[in-house]
């Protein structure tokens, strides 16, 4: 088995067969991941103690028996409906300790799950009986004046990066929520307020320092380990290893950023059509809006609140283009624009403090399709899903059931869907087609997976290779 690990670049059908055979021959207690359950191969207390003694004092480790209250609060996921109970929690204070944790886990066949902010809608930054590695202390940033690139640790949140760039008058292209982390966001693509100008977050990434299953670090960029570089940026959630840090190009900061709110009555009469079909979901109208205009749409009780964010300088031209909307029969109130000096201030002011309430509301981006029939479908979905307040778990269930009739219309938008913003629930949104739903070339991603994680130790729901046998070897030397 170690043959495959050492020679992992020469992963072959033969090697796969050998692994499968040895997997089949192994005692059942040795197959798959070790978990802290009776009869499983979870390491002994003394094995843990010996490893813990090697860690630096900045690293925190929580276990359910020694620190139960901390353990519970640290384990909780943002989506409470999809929380889980890990086997132990490691909060590395140094990269060396993160690598050591991965080495220990791979040697002992413990499943590792990385978590930055815990925003994952589907609880993929948690797992039953896993070693949960929280990267929050690895939140450093470093701007290089010469190359105008910013580097940051995988524990950094978007707010950390936006704020680090303020003194240099530059912007990073990432998500709009201040507490979301690039690490997980980039693993799916990452869209933000300036994506209509500069593309997705992944388009600006220059390099990733990456820890393989056993903690060994490799550099990924467009020429070195390019296969894994591209695989992480779009299909990376806990799949191939753990990203340690990123380097990204930056762009000149807008001289000022304007924000204003507009309140609309979506039920007002304006036959033919409605507020959404006439404007926000009207590709002709939307495409004519300046690239520097973005915003959030929040639909509740038939009224629509839009927060417009404008990063350009043509104020008169933009205001003129918005006139037909702002003077439509739907418009109730438009606030005076507030001026913000930089993206960091925008991120701080974009959301009310209780972001988890907002997380359940509709956030639109500039990526709208051209097909009017499909746009009309979306507007029905918005009405079904966001027509009322939405707080209780049982409502969650009812509401998603109500969405079922619209899924095929939504799915006809594009061949694939954004893997960072989906949710599945029982039979609702049964993503049995996940290989084609989230990935455009699954077979090549699977080849990358087998090359860099031959034992299949890194896994997550709907991740590349997640339907294959896991922990088929330990891939670390004994001792
Ligand atoms: C309130 C809210 C606002 C959002 N806003 C946006 C937005 O503006 N734009 C956008 O594109 N998306 C947005 N999203 C979706 C967001 O991109 C996903 O929730 C994403 O998974 C968050 O990544 P994270 O690292 O912050 O979260 P986590 O839950 O910590 O991680 C998400 C996934 O990435 C994995 N992961 C985390 N760190 C690493 C690492 N270092 N190496 C390997 N895998 C890792 C985790 O295991 C998990 O599978 C938003 C979500 C919410 C809830
Ligand atoms: C981790 O695995 C890689 C690939 O098989 C190997 O090159 C490296 O030496 C291993 N690292 C450790 C610490 O065992
Ligand atoms: C990083 O995290 C530490 C500990 O939570 C915090 O004190 C510090 O302010 C953070 N640094 C940045 C740049 O966010
Ligand atoms: C990729 O990284 C290697 C090693 O650091 C470096 O030599 C090479 O120039 C990098 N390529 C790109 C495109 O950045
Ligand atoms: C879409 O917008 C265009 C341009 O503003 C407008 O002429 C057209 O009537 C709109 N379509 C609908 C269905 O309202
Ligand atoms: C999802 O769909 C597949 C294929 O139709 C089916 O086999 C499976 O049982 C479904 N799962 C759930 C939870 O309904």
TrEMBL record:
Keywords: FAD, Flavoprotein, Oxidoreductase, Signal. PROSITE patterns: FAD_PCMH. GO terms for molecular function: FAD binding; oxidoreductase activity. Its cofactor is FAD. It comes from the Eukaryota. SUPFAM superfamilies: FAD-binding/transporter-associated domain-like. Residues 82-253 form the FAD-binding PCMH-type domain. This is FAD-binding PCMH-type domain-containing protein.
């Amino acid at each position: 088995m170690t043959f495959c690990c050492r020679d992992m670049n020469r992963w072959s059908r033969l090697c796969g067969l050998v692994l499968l055979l040895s997997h089949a021959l192994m005692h059942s207690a040795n197959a798959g991941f070790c978990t802290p359950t009776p009869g499983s191969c979870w390491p002994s207390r003394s094995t843990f103690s010996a490893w813990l003694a090697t860690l630096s004092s900045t690293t925190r480790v929580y276990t359910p028996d020694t620190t139960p209250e901390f353990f519970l609060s640290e384990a909780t996921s943002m989506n409470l409906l999809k929380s889980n109970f890990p086997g132990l929690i490691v909060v590395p204070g140094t990269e060396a300790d993160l690598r050591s944790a991965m080495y220990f886990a791979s040697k002992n066949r413990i499943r590792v799950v990385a978590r930055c902010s815990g925003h994952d809608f589907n609880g993929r930054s948690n797992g039953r009986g896993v070693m949960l590695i929280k990267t929050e202390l690895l939140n450093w940033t470093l701007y290089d004046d010469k190359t105008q690139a910013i580097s940051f640790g995988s524990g950094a949140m978007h707010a950390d990066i936006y704020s680090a760039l303020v003194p240099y008058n530059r912007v990073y292209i990432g998500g709009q929520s201040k507490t979301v982390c690039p690490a997980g966001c980039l693993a799916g693509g990452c869209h933000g307020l300036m994506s209509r100008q500069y593309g997705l977050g992944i388009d600006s990434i220059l390099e990733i320092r990456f820890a393989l299953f056993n903690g060994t670090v490799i550099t990924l960029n467009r020429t070195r380990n390019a296969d894994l570089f591209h695989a992480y940026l779009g299909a990376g959630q806990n799949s191939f290893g753990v990203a340690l840090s990123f380097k990204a190009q930056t762009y000149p900061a807008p001289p000022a950023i304007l924000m204003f709110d507009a309140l609309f009555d979506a039920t007002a009469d304006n036959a033919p059509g409605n507020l959404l079909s006439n404007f926000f979901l009207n590709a002709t109208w939307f495409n004519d809006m300046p690239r520097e205009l973005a915003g959030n749409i929040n639909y509740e009780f038939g009224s629509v609140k839009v927060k417009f964010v404008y990063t350009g300088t043509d104020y008169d031209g933009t205001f003129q283009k918005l006139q037909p909307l702002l003077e439509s029969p739907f418009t109730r109130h438009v606030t005076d624009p507030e001026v913000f000096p930089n993206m960091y201030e925008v991120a701080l002011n974009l959301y009310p403090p209780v972001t988890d309430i907002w997380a359940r509301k509709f956030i639109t981006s500039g990526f709208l399709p051209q097909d009017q029939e499909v746009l009309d479908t979306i507007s029905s979905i918005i009405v079904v899903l966001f027509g009322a307040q939405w707080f209780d778990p049982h409502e969650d269930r009812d509401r998603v059931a109500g969405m079922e009739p619209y899924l095929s219309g939504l799915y006809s938008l594009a061949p694939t869907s954004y893997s960072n913003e989906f949710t599945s629930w029982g039979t609702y949104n049964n993503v049995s087609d996940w290989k084609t739903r989230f990935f455009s070339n699954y077979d090549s991603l699977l080849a990358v997976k087998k090359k860099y994680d031959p034992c299949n130790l890194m896994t997550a729901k709907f991740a590349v290779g997640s339907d294959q046998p896991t922990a088929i070897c330990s891939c670390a030397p004994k001792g």
